[in-house]
Fold:
Amino acid sequence: MIFSYNLLQSFFKKKLPKPDKLAELLIAHSFEVEKIAKTDNDWMMDIDVLSNRAADCFSHLGMARECAAITGLKLIIKKYDLIEDKKMKINDLLSLEVKDKEACPRYTAQIINKIKVGSSPKWLQQILETCGLKPINNIVDAANYVMLETGQPLHAFDFDKIQSIVVRRAAKGEKIVSLDNEKYDLNENILIIADGKYPLAIAGIKGGKRAEISETTRNIILEAANFDYQAIRTASRRLKLKTDASLRFEHGLDPNLAGFALQRLAGLIQETAKGKAVKNTADIYPQKILPKKIKLDLNYVQKLLGIDITVKEIIAILKSLEFKIITQNQNKELMVEIPTFRLDINIAEDLIEEVGRLYGYENIKAVFPTTALIPPHRNEELFWENNIKDILKGIGFCESYNYSFISAEQVKAFSFEQARLPEIKNPASVEQKYLRPGLIPNLLKNVEKNLDYFDEIKIFELGKIFSRTAGSVREKKMLTTVIAQKRSKTEQFHQLKGIADLLLNRLGIADVWYNEYQPSSKDIWHSKKCAEIKIGDKKIGFLGEISPQFLSVLKIKAKAAVVNFDFHLLKEIALEECDYRPISRFPATIRDIAVLVPKTIKIIDVLNKINIGGGKLVRDVDVFDIYEGISETKKNLAFHIIYQADDRTLTAKEVDKIQNNIITTLEKTPEWEVRK
Amino acid sequence: MLKDLKELKNKAQEEVKQANTLRELERISKEYLGKKGELTQILHSLKDLPKTSRAEVGKETNEIREFLKAEIDKKVSGLEETDKKEEEKKEWIDISTPAPKPNLGHLHPLTILKRKIEEIFNNMGFATIEGPEVENEWYNFDALNIPKNHPARDAWDTLWLKDDDLLLRTHTSPVQIRYMEKHQPPLRIIVPGKTFRRDATDASHDVQFFQIEGLMIDKEVSAANFKAVIQEFFRQFFAKPIKVRLRPGFFPFVEPGFEIDMSCLVCGGKGCSTCQKTGWIEMMGAGMVHPNVLKAAGLNPKHWQGFAFGMGMDRLVMMKYKINDIRLFNSGDLRFLKQF
Structure:
């Protein structure tokens, strides 16, 4: 909010600190000052008033109170002597009715007769201009000026153009033309000021054309009312109309301010436009707001702020803010009365904030907490997350973070079941309509974009996915790893299988097997190159190449494969322990074996046969060659077989015997032929 | 005979001295020490000598043999050394040739610095906790003392789910409540996580961003304690002395509330374009936990008090690595990710 340095100064006899110095003080104790700029003969200060302080500090008076409390200068409020026409009484002249007392807790009005409309004095115009308001005439300007001073929005009507004042909800179909000639359609959500028939103003927001002050206006009625913040907020939103008045009402205002502001306005108008005030003011204020009282425990002040502050200092600070100390109980407890303009002060902690900020947060000395030395528990989930990320990083994968959303287009492409997707009611963009049910869609999007710059892409993401269940949304963490290559020597399925095996091995997960999977025709998977990853009967993940047809849908000009794990399942079975098997003191013997088998035979079957034939002295079997170019129907598989015992060196004779046993076992199968 | 031996020794010594190549030395070695070498032959003919001189000649011959062998070895290793040096001199590589890089992966910058933040706070006794990203109004607003229809609620532009009155959490603060409900103080936690706001996106705003929340509750935790903890965090995170400034701030879930500024990293507080000439950079919101929040979580504010803070992790990471656009974090762009 914009403030005029001169208007702030008007509340003090002594000089305020210079604007930049004052700004520094305000930043430290009250509010951020965004900007200071010189105007003709004033300074404008853009001060970021905290939203809970709008009630008192969207005004120069409020800001001057802050200045007084910070600097110790004495605040002086100039008084006006009102010239009254004692013969006339307002109740005889005006019928006033408030129909919705909840939306309008107070309505005060004053009539001034025989004024002379003209332009405002120069000093007043300058202050309005510093604050970004356009001078209009001495009546409107005075209302704006007193609003700047006090924070109370005010309005002046041409009294000769109205018969009565009714504060009520608008009826559907009613219309109003505002002072700036805009037409607004009204309805029951909007509170208005009306006379017997027509709307005169949108309450707390904007005045209407009907009773506008003109050059010929002689008699005026001044309004200072209090409107409920919610009523004004609703109306302002419905009408899409924000004004200086609505801004102030929306944050809530002290109803007691209305009377004070009305008097000032009448006084100022008499100074600048002459006229005589009718005796008394109209004032409908059924429930007068009284000051709150709050108990303040002095120990608590010290304990919460962590400072050694004396009672005397605390009392001085509270008094500087116009709080009253009602009772003081043996230096232990204060009873504090809060002025009604401080809507933000409701509990002892609010008072402690006042003490703290005026004492100066810079004066609070940093002290480390003295607490028991209990080390924090390790977060198991994060531990495994970090572990997995480090493994994948170690083997060349880049971690990606994606938005937690997917678009309707992606939903369609991936054939996700819409009923199970959590949908955003007010998405920020069409790209972000649903919460993601998997990490694959956005990772494949990453692939598509990155292929412009890279021939090979290896990425992963570990993050939450979402699904709808009755009445709630289920979140779970997934780990998805993707490779995409414009050219590759090894089947991508096998590349990722190696990575999955390594990852699971490093997580201490054993006994993993790959179960052949037949995807449906709608699936994104290559029908022949995908598998479920299982431990026993439990599926922990999925591995597969993306079908060429789906890659073209996604405009990915490379082959891509994905391995997907349920992170929670991985975490559950992962083990940190590592069992060491002593290195055998006895040398190993390696023999090779080559088998010619039909092309459709799985290597795992051959390996099983070798292990059955070999028994426990076969320590390891490595496939070192797969050659399919031999014939249409057969392939050649070559293995290293590693023989080793823990307790002796195996003799050539022993090894020969086992090797022969393996060969016999293999050749028992029809069409399998061991090449010799 | 002994005289002949002496001459033989001198002659051989001279030959070794003159030799310049390994081949020559090999020849010398063969000529004197080889199977048919002169010294070997003398040793073979010892049996023909009279018994009296046999021992003396034998001893002398062996001594010369050892001597000569040592001389030759010395010369050989000298020559070999020279040869290797010559050879090395001929070799040359261009050290400016770009080298093949081993294929190492990369962690996301947010992961890297999240770990660093966690480490600093973990060392100060704060446990790392996570919470749900889809929340309800109670945890995201009501329990945090942000009542319905209150203007303060506008500050959190919320993304709502279509059904079930659920929303995407607008801050990590709901986890404060969830944690306090289940754990009795004293407690110290930090909560890193994704948060969402329906914000117009630009280089410094995104719909999805990262926050880190902190909470410490005990019998006597004060603003002075908060100041010490947070100052230590910044000092360790940026690895240089950092000044921290507390200003009055307003967040419904704390009272008193603070805005936390940090002395500008670029100019050290003198004022520059980064800090808009103020010398300070706004880093986080914080304050002493509001009694209504403690109550909402089932704690008695008469017995417990503490501080809470929340900061944008993206901002911290952007400052640390001088990243100029927040949207890069969720771009999946490898040209960006591969730099960390």
Q: What stands out?
A: The longest strand of chain B covers residues 208-218. Chain B touches chain A through 78 residues (CB under 8 Å). Strands of chain B lie at 127-128, 134-136, 166-168, 187-196, 208-218, 244-249, 254-263, 280-289, 305-312. Residues 2-90 of chain B form one domain.
